[in-house]
Known about the structure:
- By secondary structure, the chain is an alpha/beta fold.
- It has twelve helices and twelve strands.
- It has helices spanning 11-18, 22-29, 37-50, 56-63, 80-92, 108-119, 135-143, 167-180, 197-212, 229-242, 254-266, 300-316, and strands spanning 68-73, 98-103, 125-129, 148-153, 161-165, 186-191, 219-223, 248-251, 276-278, 295-296, 325-327, 332-333.
- The strands form three sheets. The chain has a six-stranded parallel sheet. Strands 7-6-8-9 form a four-stranded parallel sheet, with helices on both faces. A two-stranded antiparallel sheet has the order 10-12.
- Helix 9 links the parallel strand 6 and strand 7.
- Helix 1 (11-18) packs across helix 3, helix 8 (167-180) packs parallel to helix 9 (197-212) and helix 10 crosses helix 11.
- The chain starts with 10 loop residues before the first helix and ends in an 8-residue tail after the last strand.
Amino acid sequence: MMKRSVRPLTLRDVSEASGVSEMTVSRVLRNRGDVSDATREKVLAASKRLGYVPNKIAGALASQRVNLVAVIIPSMKNMVFPEVLSGVTSVLEDSGLQPVVGITDYLPEKEEKVLYEMLSWRPSGVIIAGLEHSDNARAMLAASGIPVVEIMDVDGEPVDTAVGISHRAAGRMMGEAIAAAGHRRIAFLGTKMPLDHRARKRFEGFTQSLAKAGIEMADQEFYSGGSALAKGREMTKAVLERTPDLDFIYYSNDMIGAGGLLYCLEAGIDVPGQIGLAGFNGVELLQGLPKVLASMDACRAEIGRKAAEIILARSQDDAVTFDEKIVLSPRIAPGDTMRPL
């Protein structure tokens, strides 16, 4: 059995294997300088054959940055964020920049810890969900000296640049559509608001639009924990037993909305004839339900793409500027669970 080498490979190993100088090897691997195609191919072939991986930390000592982009999100259990990551990756995959993900579980103290660790590696940029951060986290972002893009939300003041939708406007749009369809006995079911700032803002916009239409919220219920079909079933059953004359339920996300839809169908409740239902996020995975849940597209992939484009452009040219807020426009998709206007 061949014994594994304990000595890390160096530029000299690639130089000897390819028959060119270490300086030329360095130029090829950093994609810098004028090197012939034949020499470039020879160096890359030797590097690949040896399994050589360049030491990016050594290069970072001069530039003070590594080719990593910190992407800090609340959860991977929520189906919203993988689509954002897909948008980020689609832009960065051929750029030389590599996204590295940190999870905060919606906890400010964990966000501080993740941010501290990631910034200590001197990444080329930060993409971070939300505009609400602790004072310490905000100070770290402001002092980082690198591009910072806060994503998903524009209802607030960004540290650098924000890309997202207005969740207050999204809530208002849904409230206006529900009221315009003639509904008057309306409930809101969703996550507890102290941790989910974007859900809180949608709730605020929703209640404001109902109040403007002269409608008082008939019922509401909040929960803690992750989004789940079972939670949606449970909450919908509870609210309909408590307030049986409801004619519409607006959910803070599609997962609990889908659970509510399944409960109503199993209970023989006519949707949308007897009661209308709507969620938020436009999760494609739920398109296989017996009825298509009304929802609103949160522009997730587009948010990821635009955030990555900003980081990429500014990593290449610090002088490039962008608007402080890039506001995307979500649209209501009525599906099969909202009455037509």
